[in-house]
Structure to design on (142 residues):
């Protein structure tokens, strides 16, 4: 297995797990997700508007769907599926990231940094997968 493929598979696996965490939490426990996300005493959703169970569950279900696509891509490593999964994450992550960049005033400095870093990572990781998916293999793992 080539190094680029390992990085792509690991990145897709991370995105899958990230989506599963958000997806299961928001779908099955929408009030808790609203009140407590991202956890550890931090609150990033409730400070940004009133609770809407339908909207929170929709976010959860979208995250679960994204996890299915990226999980299958990570498992099969079929090039077109890897690229579609990465592109789908970008279609979701870029507008989400831009929204939060424009609305950081609801958070204190620590939470602003956490938002920018965590949401920026969800933009950067699919870009890494896309770039690597178009590069020819360079070296084999030992």
């Amino acid at each position: 297995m080539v190094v680029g493929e390992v990085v792509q598979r690991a990145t897709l696996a991370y995105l899958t797990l990230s989506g599963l965490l958000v997806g299961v939490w928001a779908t099955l426990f929408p009030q808790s997700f609203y009140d407590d996300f991202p956890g550890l005493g931090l609150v990033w959703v409730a400070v940004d508007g009133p609770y809407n169970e339908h909207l929170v569950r929709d976010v959860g279900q979208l995250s679960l769907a994204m996890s299915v696509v990226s999980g299958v891509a990570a498992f099969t490593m079929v090039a077109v599926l890897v690229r579609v999964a990465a592109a789908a994450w970008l279609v979701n992550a870029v507008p989400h990231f831009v929204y939060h960049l424009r609305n950081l005033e609801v958070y204190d400095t620590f939470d602003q940094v956490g938002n920018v870093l965590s949401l920026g990572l969800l933009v950067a990781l699919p870009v890494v997968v896309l770039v690597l998916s178009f590069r020819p293999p360079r070296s084999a793992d030992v």
